[in-house]
Structure formats: C-alpha cells, structure tokens
Amino acid sequence: MKQSIKLFFWLLMLWVLLYQLWIVAHIAWWIDHNPESTAFMAARLDRMQDDRPDAKLQQQWVNYANINNRLKQAVIAAEDSKFVEHHGFDWVGIETAFEKNLKQGKVVAGGSTISQQLAKNLFLSGGRTPWRKAQEAVITLMLERLLTKRRILEIYLNVIEWGDGIFGAQAAAKHYFKVPAKALSAAQAAKLAAMIPNPRFYDQHRATRHLKHQTTVIQTRMRLVRVPK
Prior knowledge:
This protein has helices at residues 2-29, 39-51, 69-79, 91-104, 114-123, 130-146, 149-159, 169-177, 186-195, 199-204, 209-221; strands at 161-163, 166-167. By secondary structure, the protein is an all-alpha fold. It has 2 domains: 1-33; 35-224, Biosynthetic peptidoglycan transglycosylase-like (Penicillin binding protein transpeptidase fold). A two-stranded antiparallel ribbon has the order 1-2. β1 and β2 (166-167) form a beta hairpin. α1 crosses α6 (130-146), α5 packs across α6 and α9 (186-195) crosses α11 (209-221). The protein is globular and about 65 Å long.
C-alpha cells in the first residue's frame, strides 16, 4: 500500500514537472513566434459552437508597431498602471482589491496584472481553484522571465477577448469602429480598454452610463502611462 502511494506521488510529481516544461517550451517559442490560439479562445469557440456549429472567432494578428500607442496607454491605464515597473504582480493592487472585496462581501475588484491575465488566457481554464491560481502565478513568473514587457503586451493585445467571438485589437477596432488598430483615436482606445472587464456584455450594450464614465476616466489617465518601447 505504501509503495503504491509512493509510486503515485512520484508519478504525479513527474507529470507536474513535464507540464511545467511544456509551458516553458511554448513561452520560449513565443519569444519570436506568435501564438495561433489560446486556451481561452479554444474554450470560447467550443461554447459558441454548441449553439452555432459554424461559429468562428474573429482575430487577426498585428505587430506591436501596428497597434496605436493610444490603445497601449489606455489598456495599461485601465488594467495595470504599474505594468512596466512590476515583475508580474502588483502587490498593492492585490491588497486594495482584497480590501474592497472583503468590505463588499463579494468579488467586486480584481488585482490581476496584464501578465497574470495573459498567463490565464494562454494556458488555463476559467475555474477559480487553488491549483489554477497557483499555476497562474507560476506561468506569470515564466512570462516575466522569458519575455520582454513589450512582447507580453503585444501578445496580450492580440489575444484578449473584446466581444462575442472578437479577439485582439485588430478585430476589435474593425468590429466597433471600422478602422485598423493603428488608426484608433484616443476616445476609441479608451472605450475599448473600458470594455475589457465584461466584453461580451458591452458588445451588446455599447452606450451604458458606466461604460461612458469608465471611458472618460481612462482617457484622462492615459497620458500618465508609460508604454514599453
């Protein structure tokens, strides 16, 4: 019995190690190759095809230089103002979010950085188990170690969800404003950034008072943001 438990333990450890190496290999490949899909995109497509078997995602990769600096500023201002300064985790932001959630008695704020969000989108399911959060932290450290801030932001802007089946800055810019990501105005960039927390809802409700307010707040903060060169 003890031998069986011991064998199971070592096999489990071997599986965990191999999984981490598999993730590292993918991230290393993405230093100079673009991800074709993500775990989140695949899961979203599966759900869409449950209702519409012919459903497809809208996503088109664009290089960092072809994404307007205004959108980079807006997304950092909205999602992770200390992005260029931290090493994957904004501990002050996490503490602030925890205090807000504790005060409200429910989750009303998140402290995830852009690197943490990218780790989740690339590899993980939408669950909130302790294992998933621990794995997210490990992947975040891998991303920060192997990729530059510029590359992390470039991948993030190309793979995050921006509507019902809409992924990435190029598809979002064309879907909402009929322009390429390089041609977004400051107001358009701020609005896209404001949509990130609940993109499918805002895809159907584009003129809510809250969205307008968040767009205005983000636009005023954009000029204070540092963007990776």
